[in-house]
User: Fold RagB/SusD family nutrient uptake outer membrane protein from Parapedobacter deserti.
Amino acid sequence: MKKNINRNIQTLCFGFVLMFMVVSCNKWLDVRPSNQFDEQEQFQTAQGYIDVLVGTYQSMNDEATYGAELSFRFVDVLAQLYANKSNSNTDYYGLSARYAYTEANDTRHSPRTVIENLWAKQYNSIAQLNYLLKHMDTQPAELSERDYRLIKGEALALRGFLHFDLLRLFAPAYSEATANEPSIPYVTEFTVSPSDVLTVAEILERIETDMLAGIALQEEMQNIDQIAGNQGATVIGAELFYMFRQNRMNYWAAKALLARMYLYAGDKVNAKIYADEVINSGWFHFSQISGRNYDERDERSNIIYTSEHIFSLHHSRLNDVADDFFKTNALEPEGRDLFNTQSVLNGIYETTVDGLGSDIRSSLASPSRWSAHSNSAVYSKKYYSDHSTNVKQRLIPLIRLPEMYYIAAESATSLAEAREYLNVVREARNIAVPFTAENLPGEAALQDELFKEYRKEYYAEGQLWYFYKRFGYASLQNSVYFGAMNAVYTLPIPDTEIEFNPDYQ
Assistant:
């Protein structure tokens, strides 16, 4: 009976998310579901195909996934990035203090609820892509060659991206010992029937296949228009589809994801090849040090460094998110808030270390990307915006340029080469002291500096947890958990999936 119920629920979920229409010119991801579902009508025009693809990006803005949990909330709570989560009166206490993944309570941030919703929403987005790809098995007459290649290329690469994060969360970190362990389903069909559970190695092969196919299809569309240049755009219709490429799983984003994936799989040769290609593409640039503007009330502010975005999501209601979790006014902190203490942040950004106090990422820098209500409650301003037309402050970054330098450094053939990559980022962040053979002498020092960089660069962006897991850290910085970490790096498969999929039984 439970299996039938689960199938019916999945069928309903799929039906409700499939139809989307663009309703805004200068916010291409502002979409709303249609009141009726007509499969034949949906695919009569190129705009119909575009709407379904755009709808997938919009579904990724759901709080359950990249709209919160997989960017600044759940995965960063797991990584112990927020100092207040050790308090039993706060949201996520069951996760940060005990990693109690199966605990259920009355809050919407019950560990079990968060994990089940994350799984369901992620596969829901994958279902939308498979629905779209089903209608593109042969090139439809409604689509030009250019549209066909771009839409299908994005869809395939995005499918790989979504599966990769599921793998990183719900399967053990890749190694020779875990390569053949069962992990998750890789869903490529639009169906309510359960898909086979594949091994870690098999999932990585499927991701690679989708990413390479997506890259090949987008070969003719390597150009990237900077988000900042599109601010205030009034273009309507299909032409809007060719704008805001940084908000899409574009050609370079697919290559960047492959660099991330190859590093995860231990293939440093390919990881470095793809990271270098993105670095040398010329399309992405570090945010300027001089003239930087972090005033959330200013239309010109760029707190989130958009010129570095290889792939980010446009979230029209991001200001509401900031109000909810990163206090934008002087009210007292609440249990749902995500903040840190000044002393912890000083440690993260090494403000007392000679030569590092000038780091523009630091909470002590001026202008500052932080909002200090007191020394006990300091909030990141990455998602702040008090200006309605500032499209640069409506973005959740998923892949940024610094990571390509970190991947290249970790994959470098020599320590000297690794130092060169890290020094580029160091200089871009206004740190005048370069790495040398004296202050970065060996592999252990390189890993330690990479850890520090991921923690500094990706605060409230959801990447540090994966770094910890990949290296199997036995303890985490600023943690209030003292159990065995190897037992908590892999999330449990939700009960609803275990009941539905015979491969888990």
